Amino acid sequence: MAIFLATSTWAFAQNSDPASFAIAASKIATENNGKGICTPPGTTLDNLMLPLRKYMSQHPEKQDLTEADIYQALSQGFPCPTNPSNNIDTLRSQGYSVRTISPIFGQLVMFSFPKGFTTVFEDAKGPQYIREAVLTGESTQKWSQMVTITGAKGIASNPNITPLLFASRMAGGFKNDCPTSFNGTGLGAFKLGNYDAFAALISCGVANPTGNLYSESTLLIVIRGESDYYTIQWAERGDASSEPIKFDKSKWMDRFKRLAPIKLCPIVPGEPAPYTSCIGGA
Questions:
Q1: Among candidates 103, 99, 253, 131, which has minimal Cα distance to 190?
Q2: Number of structural domains, the chain?
Q3: 133: which of 40, 119, 159, 178 fits an S-S bond (Cβ 3.0–4.6 Å)?
Q4: Where are the extended beta strands (E) located within the chain?
């Protein structure tokens, strides 16, 4: 497979037809050696149950299937092609989009995973979660573009914190780092299903004044979930500028669209990856 995601994350390629989808999942875990599950276009959610039922009939001694059992059943029922040309990028060229679904604190978070990115860092400490992906071949130390997802646990219940305020505080951190070259603009409030969200563009003309000079601009999407806050960010670095960076809104709006659809779903107790309860309706 051509896309590598953190252990807690699955990717699937979904055709624009909501009645069918193709999973091209790559779960980085030693037990499956990075293998995936690939179903052809036209496969419905009901079709996914067929290999599970077969597996259960073959293993009557198992009263409850573990995540490993379910993965084994699906991978046997829907093995991925061995031809290296049949990878995620090939599926993209055939009209599929690649998405990730991750359990982050109280909810599942789904969004489209842009082409060319590889997850390189994931960490959860206390009430904070972060996962970073950069262009293939780059690193967290040296990158030109980065897609980041974060979670802040338990703060959605505070009525004084809104997505706009959350975004403003993050923008304030940028401005403190580059007061003379800062630029920021709101793209507006919107709804993701029943959840309030806000998007903005923020940038520093000189983002690293004490080291190698570069600029940094970020598309910031803030979402207030049931109990937690989430952000999805797409950042890029470029040449340093003593003046505020002018935003190419058409470029950034295109990136916004490439992250869509973004969706929050409830965590179903006991449901294993790839979290099919969150796939429908997106």
A1: 253
A2: 2
A3: 119
A4: 10-15, 96-104, 107-112, 117-125, 128-135, 145-152, 182-192, 195-204, 215-224, 229-238, 263-266
Query: 48 and 112 share a domain?
Result: no
Q: What is the pLDDT of residues 197-247, one digit of tens each?
A: 999 999 999 987 667 899 999 999 999 999 999 999 999 999 999 999 999
Here the tokens at position 120 are: 């390189």
**pTM for this structure?**
0.73
| Cβ–Cβ < 8 Å for 243, 205 | yes
C-alpha R_g of the chain: 20
Closest CA to 216 of 194, 231, 201: 201
CA 169 to chain centre: 22
Q: Which amino acid appears at position 265 of this protein? A: C
User: Which residue is it, tokens 């009901």?
Assistant: 46
